[in-house]
Amino acid sequence: MKNIYELKQERASKIALMSDLVNKVLTENRSKDEAETTLWNTLDKEVTALDENVRMIERQDELNKQVGKAVEVRTESKPLSIQFRDWLKDAVDNGKSSTFTGLSELRADPFLSTTDANIINKTVAPKIDILTSPGEAFLRQLGVTIYEGLTGNFVVPNMAEDVATFPGENTSTVSANMQTSSIVLAGRRLTHKQSISRETLTQTNAGVYNSMLQNLTNGLWTAVVSDMFDQIDVDASTRISNYGGTTLSYPKLLAMDASIGGLSIANQAYVTTPTIKGYLKGTAALANQSAIWNNNEVNGYPAFGVPQANATKIYFGDWSRAIVGSFSNIELIVDPYTSADKGLINITVVGMFDTGCANPRAFSILTDASIG
Question: Is the pLDDT of residue 54 over 80?
């Protein structure tokens, strides 16, 4: 069954066809021929039927709201894209609740054309779909362990690796004799805010809202990535100094690999800043050899250059031992009141995140990675 948005889009396309037919006849200064008359009449009947269906859906929405006022309904958290769609309707209605299921009614009927350069045509209403943020995609590509849907503090076991033994006959097994420690992930509030004017809300194509919400969500994950590197800086037990003032060299990167060679690790990769990445791409590993950074690999391992990595540092290790905890769905908060005198609607996205390092021994950091 078509929703109200699809019906309105279909109606607009049929009206456009009718308008083109009339304009053609008027431009040629003649009467409609039989085929054109039949087509126009057919389209007119279809538009009338669509109008009736739109009115029926709008009336049913009103009745649904009246029924819903008498009952408090508790539902699961909606996907972010659905929350945002509902907000657009609510914002236009000055914050009134809505069960609206379409998108075009968020705005006035589309402008078919305009000569006002200050008005943005809005005949297209693309589907709102929040894509995976680059920061989240990077963490997953790196192999970072992400725990989602956490409730309360989350204790992560944290211990060094040990090897089991084959005890002799009638001999007790040898204890691992390790001091088991733990890290605790506790939700920390992460927020990102944007304001949008009511003029923009009225005039702009719906795709702009999608871009804005995507940027806000991207900003949250960018902060999570930065926090992860800060946590590894605190926890990592192996630190190799580049000796300030000495140019970064390939043997230092090999030493990072060797420093955690005793671990059974996976998801190994080098990560640094784009600046250091650029330097390594132009520096030979050894005399008459290819560059240190070649085809996004260093020392045979994947290599990444990201702006969230801390300056003058290179990281290497088993990235599955890096932990990110998400304690709730990303929440969308719309505030049409605080800046109402300025005609602004404040939009805030909020998430609860924390990061940690399950095994500090699994990471090596090259500090003071001087490139000149």
Answer: yes
Question: CA 179 from chain center: how many Å?
Answer: 39
Higher pLDDT, 279 or 197: 279
**Enclosing domain of residue 296:** 131-161+180-372
pTM of the model: 0.63
Q: What is the model's pLDDT at position 122?
A: 37
**How do residues 174-204 score in pLDDT, each as one tens digit?**
665 555 567 889 999 999 988 888 777 666 5
My answer on whether 150 and 33 are in the same domain is: no
Q: Are residues 139 and 65 in the same domain?
A: no
Q: Which of 51, 74, 97 is the last residue of a domain?
A: 74
